[in-house]
Design goal:
Layout: E1 2-5, H1 20-28, E2 32-36, H2 47-52, E3 56-58, H3 61-67, E4 70-72, E5 90-93, H4 101-110, E6 113-116, H5 131-148, E7 170-174, H6 178-189, E8 193-198, H7 201-210, E9 215-219, H8 222-228, E10 234-237, E11 263-266, E12 287-290, E13 293-296, H9 306-327, H10 329-335, H11 337-342, E14 343-346, E15 349-350, H12 353-358
Parallel strand pairs: 1-2, 1-4, 2-3, 4-5, 5-6, 7-8, 7-10, 8-9, 10-11, 11-13
Antiparallel strand pairs: 6-14, 12-13, 14-15
Helix pairs in contact: 5-6, 9-10
């Protein structure tokens, strides 16, 4: 298969979809890998490393899209890329369609095959290609939150772990999944007073057993959220509904109940956000203030640590990429239900129900195309 890896052009997106080691594995299996010049440079992987792995370097994004049967990316295509996408071309990347209708319509119009990392799903309902970036984002949410709690950056001026004779910061985490778990471990390690809210009792029992003593769990509902937010210093949104828009657990009117300088970090912003007042921001302009509350809503947080993120992502995606390259997307999807769940749009039709429901589009069962 002819596999193309373009340079990411989203604002401050420094990751690349394939490491040189991943390229070498694909070449060993007889596939051709085309990399846009300097696509891996910001992640610490220069062109020469890819050449040594057997990849071909092409000078422009247009050439990558023109030659490739499968496009490997990190983030969703943005507007300048839409005209480059060909009918029947396979795109394998994070799409998060439910958060952005223009992207959904553009991919429908392109008649490409859209295989989304974030909806590839195992039998146990885990999301193997979302987990590594969720791990990174959960840990980063605490790093960033601790930073923005500093007074010069707009926060309350509170040290996350406190010092002897002072109380630590109170961290409220909405969601006890992968993001929430890693955020809690990071915040607890820094000495914060952490509370995780979740709707699953089995999950909370698991978290209560494995977390350190400074982490507590509570049932997630509006009453408990309103009870906790007046004393919270850092609130992290970590809610995920696979393929669908995240629900708003923090509403605009709740901001008035928060202390001035409270920091909100919405990791779910690339799925529409679980904090009503959160809008996607960039690493270039990451924050804004509403009602005295600082919002950090960068939609590609792991892009700030591209070396770690690129390695973690390729570790997870490469087995699936090899399977698709070897069998073709259709046969791979027929034989592997995990990949079948990743198909979102095929030949102009939405085949993932949560995306169709979000925008009131016609849903077509994926089996029609297999």
């Amino acid at each position: 298969m002819l596999i193309g890896v373009p340079k990411e052009i989203k604002n401050n997106e420094n990751r690349v979809a394939l490491t040189p080691a991943g390229a070498k594995e694909l070449v060993k299996q007889g596939h051709q890998v085309y990399l846009q010049e300097n696509a891996g440079a910001e992640s610490g992987f220069g062109n020469e490393l890819y050449r040594k792995a057997g990849a071909t370097i092409l000078p422009s994004i247009e050439e990558i899209y023109r030659v490739a049967e499968m496009i490997l990316k990190v983030k969703e295509p943005i507007e300048p890329e839409y005209p480059l996408i060909r009918e029947n071309q396979l795109l394998f990347t994070y799409f998060h369609f439910a958060s952005y209708e223009p992207l959904t319509k553009a991919m429908i119009n392109s008649k490409a095959v859209c295989l989304a990392y974030e909806t590839v799903e195992k039998a146990d309902r885990s999301l193997p290609l979302l987990i590594p970036m969720s791990e990174v984002a959960g840990r980063m949410a605490v790093q960033k939150g601790a930073n923005y709690l500093e007074k010069p950056l707009g926060g309350r001026g509170i040290l996350l772990g406190g010092v002897p004779g002072t109380l630590p910061a109170k961290v409220l985490i909405l969601g006890g999944g992968v993001v929430g778990t890693h955020a809690a471990l990071m915040a607890a390690g820094l000495g914060a007073d952490v509370t995780i809210l979740d709707v699953s009792l089995p999950r909370m029992r698991y978290l209560a057993d494995m977390m350190p003593p400074n982490v507590k769990t509570m049932m997630s509902n509006e009453y408990n959220i309103r009870k906790l937010i007046p004393s919270a210093d850092l609130i992290i949104g970590a809610v995920l509904i696979p393929g669908a828009k995240a629900p708003h657990l923090i509403t605009r009117d709740m901001l008035k109940e928060m202390l001035p300088g409270t920091v909100l970090v919405d990791v779910a912003v690339d799925q529409g956000g679980c904090i009503e007042t959160c809008q996607p921001t960039t690493h270039e302009n990451p924050t804004y203030v509403i009602d005295g509350v600082l919002h950090y809503c960068v939609a590609n947080m792991p892009g700030a640590v591209p070396y770690t993120s690129t390695l973690a992502l390729t570790n997870a995606t490469l087995p699936y990429v090899l399977e698709v390259a070897e069998k073709g997307w259709k046969n791979a999807a027929i034989q592997n239900p995990e990949l079948r769940a990743g198909l979102n749009i095929i030949d102009g039709e939405v085949v993932y129900k949560a995306v169709a429901d979000t925008f009131s589009l016609e849903y077509v069962p994926v089996e029609k195309h297999l």
